[in-house]
Amino acid sequence: MAQLIDGKAISAQVRNEVKQAVAERIAAGHRPPYLAVVLVGDDPASASYVRGKAKASAEVGIQSDTLTYDASISEQELLDIVQRLNDDEGVDGILVQLPLPDHIDDRKVIHAIDPAKDVDCFHPESVGNLVIGLDGFQPATPAGIVEMLQRTEIQTSGAQCVIIGRSNIVGKPLANLMLKKGLDSTVTVCHSRTKDLPAIARQADILVAAIGRANFVTADMVKPGAVVIDVGINRVDDDSRERGYRLVGDVDFEAVEPIASAITPVPGGVGPMTIAVLLQNTLRAATGA
Ligand code: GUN
């Protein structure tokens, strides 16, 4: 039986720490940290993520507003809004919810955010700092994974960490974090063109699945005793559920759990950690630390 790594509980712990630090800042005479969230269009998933971020912010004493714009907004108008938020000293963190409508270049908008307010850690300057190991904002999902590993006292130093998936928001930044001094893992990143991926995955002491394919990681890809981190959130049809689907990860949990030493569930694993890191970043933006 693998240890279940409880993302909900660890996220609550982190959020409590942020709450305490915010209360201490306010007691010391500072205003509350302020997060500006920009939401363009009416994608229900984005709206739901943004509601979650606003609610979690409020719970720890971080003020936030969601600035909502019609999908027809021009790229220039959006760039002007970001510039206004950059210039506003009352705004500590800026988050532009992605994806943006097709006529707007995501990269241009992300590049326009002041790196000192880039709580998503998406700006190239933030990514560069991460790669060279400087302290700064942390990318939400990768840093959430690291928090889970550290708070579960999983040894990362010298560990073989195999990451399946090379995305800009998970695989690549996680590889850089795990390589950092202090974490000191040996990192391999696998992707769709990797030869004999199961054999490489089987070498992992820490195996991270971040490819977005339901049940991709099967028992034959897991070394006995490995720690398995599942970043996937995939919908699979399920007529027994009222909503007609259920959420599953990138790991075949039933098959892998008996082999692993520790594993994250889906839901309730990596997912809840991402908002906790966003709150940490917003606090950091306010303190300038
Ligand atoms: N869309 C999905 N996840 C994210 C995220 O973490 N940040 C932003 N800005 N957009 C997203």
CATH class of the largest domain: Alpha Beta
Q: Give the full name of the CATH homologous superfamily of the largest domain.
A: NAD(P)-binding Rossmann-like Domain
Would you report the number of β strands? 11
Query: Judging by the overall fold, what is the CATH architecture of the largest domain?
Result: 3-Layer(aba) Sandwich
Give start-end ranges of low-pLDDT stretches: none
Can you walk me through this structure?
The protein has 289 residues and is of the alpha/beta class. The protein has two domains: 30-114, Rossmann fold (3-Layer(aba) Sandwich); 140-271, 3-Layer(aba) Sandwich (Rossmann fold), CATH 3.40.50.720. 39% of the residues lie in helices and 17% in strands. The protein is globular. Residues 49, 95-98, 120, 140 line the site of guanine. Guanine binds at residues 49, 95-98, 120, 140.
Write the layout of secondary structure elements.
Elements lengths: L2 E2 L2 H21 L6 E7 L3 H17 L2 E7 L5 H13 L5 E4 L9 H7 L11 H8 L8 H12 L8 E5 L6 H9 L6 E5 L6 H5 L4 E4 L17 E4 L3 E4 L7 E4 L4 H4 L5 E2 L7 H17 L2
Parallel strand pairs: 1-11, 2-3, 2-4, 5-6, 5-7, 7-8, 8-11
Antiparallel strand pairs: 9-10
Helix pairs in contact: 1-10, 2-10, 6-7, 6-10
Bound molecules: guanine.
The site of guanine has 7 residues, from strand 4.
